[in-house]
Amino acid sequence: MRVITLLTDFGNGDYFVASMKGVILGINPNVTIIDITHDVPSFNIRKAAFILWATYRYFPRGSVHVAVVDPGVGTSRRAIAVMSRNYYFIGPDNGVLTMAAEDDGVLEVREISNRGVMLSDVSSTFHGRDVFAPAAAYLGLIDFKDYGPLVSDYVKLTMPKPVERNGVIEAQVVYVDKFGNVYTSVRRGMFNINYGDYITVNVKGRGIRLGVNRSYGYVNKGEALALFNSMGFLELAINGGSFSSEYGLSEGDVIQIVR
Fold first, then answer.
1. Which InterPro entries is this protein grouped with (predicted)?
2. In a domain, 152, yes or no
3. Are 44 and 125 in the same domain?
4. CA 142 – CA 164 distance, rounded (Å)
5. What is the span of the domain harbouring residue 93?
6. 250's torsion region: left (phi>0), alpha (psi -120 to 50) or beta?
């Protein structure tokens, strides 16, 4: 029994997600469908790519990850199927799949051009239902090569890398979670930053002195701190509050860190 995951920006108030699930089960009822999330901010490809990267590895080998954040739907952008070392990824060729797929190790990428793995009537605005859902359902029922021709020039999104110049680390905000915790592009082990240290984070001309702690409860409620989170990122947080809101930080913003 294969697992198929769904990750979209469709929300849960419309018919979109249910339609995709209906298509999948109509083709292959012997699958388990898991929702990663449908609350990705509209059109935010990079956030969806990060969420997929953060979750794909925790599913059984052979799982199919369908990610549909697709502002280019109906245009000349390709639909692709990716085979990596342990998983399959299906979605638009706009980078949403590749942060995760490249992390696992891409073996083969094919354009989804075989009309036999799509619905008979393909709309120009809902490829999640008409192309990606059926393509996912057919995995294991047909050979991977039958999806379409090989693709070598697929769009890639990569994790930003921090750089250090003259003792100052220039980093980027790669993710903000629902609590307002800010994930920076600094990973554990990249620089000599350890628990018990203090760092200064320069945010939009404002210097913030933070202790590096193991978790939120090591500081008083309302106090800001830094920590290495469950994904290994240097995170900026406020115990019981939102660092993002307090300091006006969003994904893509650049910050400086001084040890």
1. SAM_HAT_C, SAM_HAT_N, SAM_OH_AdoTrfase, SAM_OH_AdoTrfase_C_sf, SAM_OH_AdoTrfase_N_sf
2. no
3. yes
4. 49
5. 2-147
6. beta
* 116: helix, strand or coil: helix
Amino acid (one-letter) located at 165: R
Residue 1 clears pLDDT 80, i.e. is over it = no
**Helix H or strand E segment including 91:** strand 88-92
**Rg value, the chain, Cα:** 20
CA distance to 19, 83, 98, 148, per residue, from 107 (Å):
30, 6, 12, 15
DSSP state of 64: E
Report how far Cα 208 is from the mean position of its chain's Cα atoms: 29
CA angle (240, 246, 248) in 5-degree steps: 140
Cβ contact 92:77 at 8 Å: yes
**162 Rama class: left (phi>0) / alpha (psi -120 to 50) / beta:** beta
Q: For residues 67 and 92, give the distance between their C-alpha atoms in angstroms, rounded to a whole number.
A: 8
Question: Of 257, 28, 49, 12, which is closest to residue 4 (Cα–Cα)?
Answer: 28
Q: Measured between alpha carbons, how far is 258 from 209 in angstroms, rounded to an integer?
A: 9
In contact, 129 and 26? CB cutoff 8 Å: no
The per-residue DSSP string of 211-241 comes to EEESSGGGS-TT-EEEEE-TTSEEEEEETTB
- Pair (167, 105) in one structural domain: no
Distance (Å, whole) CA 47 – CA 53? 10
Residue 24's SS3 state is helix
Into how many domains does the chain fold?
A: 2
**CATH at residue 215:** 2.40.30.90
131-177 residue pLDDT tens: 999 999 999 899 999 999 999 999 999 999 999 999 999 999 999 99
3-state secondary structure of 62: coil
